[in-house]
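INFO worker-7 received task bundle
INFO bundle size: 2
INFO processing item 0
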Amino acid sequence: MTNQKATAIERKELNLEALYPKISDEGKELSQQWIEKYSLAKSVFYQVGELVKTEVEKWTATTGKKTTYSEIRRHLLANDLVKEFAKMRTGPASCVFNAARADINADLDYQQRIKTWENTATEYLNLNPDLEMPFYVTAPNFHWSPYVATNDWEEQFLGCVWDIGTSIMGQSSPTVRNYSIGGGRLSRMVNYLSKNFPNFKPQRILDIGCSAGGSTIVMAMEFPEAEVHGIDVSSSMLRCGHALSVALDLPIHYHQMDASQTTFPEGSFDLIVSNIVFHELPNGIRRKVILECSRLLSPGGIMAHMEGGTYMAPTNIFQKLWRESDIHTNNEWYVGNASMEKLAVYIEEAGLSTEGSLLNKITPSSEFFEGALLIGGQKI
């Protein structure tokens, strides 16, 4: 670890409390609602897992052959326990985002800090008010929260709502919030690339669909000598990412762009990454994004997108049932048609090599969930 990287991480830990609002009474109440609803759904989750096993065994015993998800799908979806589980999972995520809104509204000092950070080093924040918002981003209301601002308050703080709300999802107490910048997926990806490509030292990095900057900040800390850029279609997300980066003294460039058709010159980047973005895209857009990544990569450059394996490449009937449930209960509209085979075709069409296991699950899988999926390729 370089001294610069160590300093950035120490600074992050030092300023972490200042990066977030105080927990409000309303925020506590809404967080508690989330915890209770999530805990109840989790208890039924394992019952559904056992039910699927039993029904598959019955089907096999009756028909004398192994079933597929398409064959048993209607039978499972008609089961009362599966229906009840779907009801439990529909909408509780809205509690965490409403809790984040409540905390932000109640903490005027936090609001001022965000505004001050946003208005500092503005040359690093490049917004495009003329950018056409893609339907596949504005329509779904992912996780029961808008992603693109619909009013002035959201323009300023919606990115913060997402950053705080997704942090609340991982907590077990309404009065304890262990916020984290970024996530483990990208750090695992960096370690994976270091092991498989030990001489790869990217100088210019692009994070696509960077949201509120959590993943972009991780890349800036992992590669302190590199020039790091993040793009997203949502101006509110970029405002939050820029504010947090300023607070952490990280010189990250944020741009309001569509990842399927950026305005960067050909060969601009050595490493292009994303964190759980691909499952939010229709298949046709996934293809366009991969083709655009190929255009933007320098010779020898690497594309490395991290995803949840259960969304993109489920391997058993329970996982496929879970994925289909998420389409309706969590507004994950585009996960149902994803597959490793399609991704491999798009990567090959883009002229990228997957040697070095660049299209691969890089963390262990379980019976219920697949490991983290690396969607990657190298410009040869």
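INFO item 0 finished
INFO processing item 1
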Amino acid sequence: MSDKLQKVLANNGVGSRREMETWIQQDRISVNGAVAKLGDRVELTDQIRVDGNLLKRDQKTPVCRVLMYNKPEGELCSRTDPQGRLTVFDRLPAISSGRWIAVGRLDLNTSGLLLFTNDGELANRLMHPRHEVEREYAVRVFGDVEPKTLTLLKKGVELDDGIAKFTDIIARPNEEESINSWFDVTLSEGRNREVRRLWESQGVQVSRLIRLRYGPLSLQKRLPQGAWIELELPDVNALRKQVQLPVETETVVGIGDNKLDHVKLQRMRRSVKKHKARAGTPNKLNADGTVADGGDGQRNRKPNESRSNGGRPGSKGGKGNGGRGKTGTGKPNVGRTRAGTSDANPSKKSSDKTGAKPKRTNPNRKKSTRQQQGQ
């Protein structure tokens, strides 16, 4: 039985079906030595090459796996970045067969729920507008929004790529004297920057955007930013049921692996912090091309510029010194001395300090036997 080429590539974890269609148009795929074209179908015995590399097709369908990732602001939804910025793929676990596929995208300054899967068909269906999978976001906007504006956004407005609308808008209670307003909005498609463009079409500026839910799955509240968990079988099958795929019967997740207790949360936070320190790339770019302060003490620098000392500013050997020990540009060791030494002259003993009394000797003290023999 033959299948569409892009479907076979997606099922083997090469990428999503939309991405594979683009690769086919770019002549990056060949079948049995001939350049593939859109609409080609392949058999199990056909040889498929991607960029000249032979695709090892799994005879057995791999287990469907799904990751839930809490994306922080400042990470790109791409595998690599020529400017050296952090990407959402940097910290994902290794996978033995295929590769992780992002289900949809979030722009640079949007945070929250991002799903990854090794099942190309599942990813394609979750992203396809035909299945109308709901996405829910928390939105913070500047100023107050009039009721007629909210009504218009739910009815539909004309954007550059067609009519768009929110299926639901819920206003959150605002704090007193706050200049911002919070809303929970829902829509059933995922066009590029659609949420921001909808608000901007009404002259409303979005200052923060967080994805809370994708289909039946909501972001776990205790999951730290930059951390991930692998979903258990019931959650995986909830996604598959949403897009009319057969249930998965196997999983690689052990019992209790997803329990976010205090110890696991601490381990996750340390891992995220170490990764950011090793990467040395902050979150955002300034208008002049320098990298903005990422909130962890990083200075402004060009995207590919690395620190000379490999660690925090004012540190030596990549470790923060807190003003102690040997310092680079940190605080000097004024008032911090080793036992028996001083800041002015470390080679002299503490008895040489200003105001210290000299050691007295008793002239009537009985001499030792060795001293008497020497006389």
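INFO item 1 finished
INFO post-check item 1: The CA atoms of residues 280 and 306 lie 7 Å apart.
INFO post-check item 1: The longest strand covers residues 206-214.
INFO worker-7 idle
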